[in-house]
């Protein structure tokens, strides 16, 4: 569809370490253009490959049959063609409370992590003293406490409004802006309180993050060795990635005009799905100790097999 591409042939060759090493030797002397690849697959005994093939074939067959079956059922039953699901008032309150709790808590936790990196890079010799277990516990508890207080205020404020316009919330979960569209109450005071509360939450966390990284950058630039600078920036890159995704999605979600509700949904989806998906990849797989642990675990399984 995007234009003609060279055809690439894939050959699955399990447990062929000798063939691969021989090809590597030939490839070192022959620099011709690569036209195909060899997929090694799992490094297990040959007789296990049949079992793995049957297992994966069964799984993929179940996936295809399940999805095709659901599509056929939805197509034949007109009642299933409407993507609307109802939620009780109490369920909407609980959903709103939990969403507000975790998003505010994550903001304070990211600020605490920025301070942790500031201590680790700017005062490494005093890190174990300043970032004690007691302080870490207090920072985590304080983040959840602030998130809980904020969530209680936002929830009580939102659900004391009178909802008389419609029952249909133009969103995929209960959030402030789509719920306000259903209200027939005077929203001026509600908007002012929401803006003030958001400012009290967002501004301190952003200030802590920005100031911490200003000191971090200043300290890193004083490091003479390139390797030392690279290591310091690598320590902060994962945290900065999560901060960018979270605050970018939040700002986009709440600063999008009300006449573009679909854009707000996209930003909400980014926060609710993309950020949790990236967290283990960014925090864990970029950590050298975690990589070594995974490597040892895989080597141990290969030895057993």
Automatic annotation (TrEMBL):
It comes from the Eukaryota. Pfam families: 7tm_4 (PF13853). It is found in: Membrane. The chain crosses the membrane at residues 48-74, 86-115, 201-221, 233-254, 266-285. Keywords: G-protein coupled receptor, Membrane, Receptor, Transducer, Transmembrane, Transmembrane helix. One of its GO terms (molecular function) is olfactory receptor activity. Residues 32-283 form the G-protein coupled receptors family 1 profile domain. The keyword DNA-binding does not apply. Its main location: membrane. It is a multi-pass membrane protein. The keyword Membrane applies. GO terms for cellular component: membrane. PANTHER family: OLFACTORY RECEPTOR. This is G-protein coupled receptors family 1 profile domain-containing protein. It comes from Microcebus murinus. The gene is LOC105865811.
């Amino acid at each position: 569809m995007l234009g003609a591409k060279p055809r690439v042939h894939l050959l699955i060759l399990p447990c062929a370490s000798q063939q691969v090493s021989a090809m590597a030797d030939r490839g070192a002397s022959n620099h011709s253009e690569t036209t195909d690849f060899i997929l090694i697959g799992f490094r297990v005994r040959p007789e296990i490959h049949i079992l793995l093939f049957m297992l994966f074939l069964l799984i993929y067959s179940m996936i295809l049959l399940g999805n095709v079956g659901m599509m056929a059922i939805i197509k034949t039953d007109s009642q299933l063609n409407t993507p609307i699901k109802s939620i009780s008032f109490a369920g909407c309150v609980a959903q709103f409370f939990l969403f507000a709790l975790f998003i505010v808590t994550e903001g304070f936790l990211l600020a605490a992590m920025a301070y942790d990196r500031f201590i680790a890079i700017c005062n490494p010799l005093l890190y174990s003293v300043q970032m004690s277990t007691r302080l870490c516990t207090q920072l985590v508890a304080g983040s959840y406490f602030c998130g809980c207080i904020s969530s209680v205020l936002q929830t009580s404020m939102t659900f004391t409004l009178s909802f008389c316009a419609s029952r249909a919330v133009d969103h995929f979960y209960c959030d402030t802006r789509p719920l306000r569209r259903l209200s027939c109450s005077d929203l001026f005071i509600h908007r002012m309180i929401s803006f003030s509360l958001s400012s009290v939450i967002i501004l301190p966390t952003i200030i802590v993050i920005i100031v911490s990284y200003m000191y971090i950058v200043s300290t890193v630039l004083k490091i003479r060795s390139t390797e030392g600078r690279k290591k310091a920036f690598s320590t902060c890159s994962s945290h900065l990635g999560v901060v960018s995704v979270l605050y970018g999605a939040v700002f986009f979600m709440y600063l999008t005009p009300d006449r573009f509700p679909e854009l707000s949904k996209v930003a909400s989806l980014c926060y609710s799905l993309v950020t949790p998906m990236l967290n283990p990849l960014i925090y864990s797989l970029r950590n050298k100790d975690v990589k070594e642990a995974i490597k040892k675990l895989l080597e141990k399984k290969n030895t057993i097999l």
